[in-house]
Amino acid sequence: MTTAAPTAPVPGLPATLRAEFATWRRSAVAYLPLGGLAFGLVSSAVFVSAGPGRSWQDVLGYQNLWAMFVGPMLTVLLVATAARIDRGARGGGTRYRPVRPAYRQLSRFTVLAVRSLLLNVLGAGTPLLVLGALSSAQRVPAGRALEAVLVPWISQLGMLALILWLARQTSWGVALAVGLVWTVLGVVNAESTAWAALPFTWLDRGALPVIGTHANGVALEAHSALISASPWPPALLGALLAVPFLLLPRLRRPGTRTVEHRTTPSPTASAQGATAILGTVTEPAPHLEPGGPRVAAAVLGMLRGTALTWLCPGSVGLIALWLSWHAPDASVQLFTLLVLPIGTLVLGLVVWSAAGQGWRAVASRATGTRGPALVLTGAAVAVTVAVSLVTALLYLTAGVPAGHAWLLALTGAVVGAMLTTFTLWLAIRTSQAVAVVVGIIGILFGVLVGGTAMQRNLWALIPYSWANYLDLHRISVTLPVSLVATALCTFGITHATRKAAENS
Question: Which of 318, 322, 339 is nearest to 331 (CA)?
């Protein structure tokens, strides 16, 4: 009589939590909270550049951009990135371990909630510490400072659980899009009288009385009801929103394939399989054309079916539509501060998403990685230059003077090439999540500096705003620096692609 082998014990919640924290220890998820530190340092520099004579209420008011948009969107990016890594690694084998699904889901939520807390501590706490150390008048009271960090984080927990559940069912892009819509709806409706019935308002409503501003950043009036409102009811509602999404099971979409037990093949099937094998063996090898490999055609083939086929015409069409309603001279910033920086960010991400999946196969070819990397970079830069030239032509036909349109085309092409190669290098060398964080922060501060009087002192420090400066004094600096940066990033791309092939 034989005895069955003892079954492995089912891990409990503490063991599942330890394993989940260990899983993400050196991944992009662990480093994404540093984006909060970068934002906090840049925000502090912008605050200081505005001049002395500020109070701690002004310091809290500067938290509006973080609490309303940057903090929530970085949390969305954190969750979506974790889901994307997990899907690419097929769960790392943990889906087949004897772990309760509820434990696994709660552990993943806990790990991401801790990372989100660190993100808010760095993003909101850094300016409070730095600016408070520079001036005693800017030192926020401890209780209020603690609320400025904890209230946004607690409010984000419900959205975190929502995006975590959604990212398990859909793609990375869909999760980011839903997070963006949820965040924008929260900002637009944060001061609605029906806020208690609108779950997306719980994301922002609690932070407003803490930082002392309306959702649009304007300081609260003395008679505003939000001044005396408690931040905790909406914040706690935002946290309780996580409960139903943690309890929801993963949906099984129609057409999902299930694993079937292998059965003994029938004689007919065996004969058909043998015939197919013999047919492939006796078929002559394909004729290879003489000459070297066509690297450019192969690389461009990778990009043929990507979103670039509609994103580039769409961005040009957006500008054309905008120019039909607005004066062209007052609309240049739409391209220089928004369309161009956002377009170069998306371009770099799309290009590497298309090429990165098969880059190890590219490295195994006789061409190596240097040639394909240069062609890939050249294709991305060519797209940026083409969009810049077509956009400048649109502004010219809309009535912008020829000299102004020529400078717009030149700065758009050169600065755009720098931003494109920088994003592409960052996505290859680190991860797409890091590239998104850097791009979002750069674009936000590019708009903040390039679109306001802050550009008088800070224009040289924010490359994402350089395309907006068309005077000869600043062009003489931005264009040469952009060309040198483009060359350095291209050199970095050739090395980063080789490393990416080795590590893939």
Answer: 322
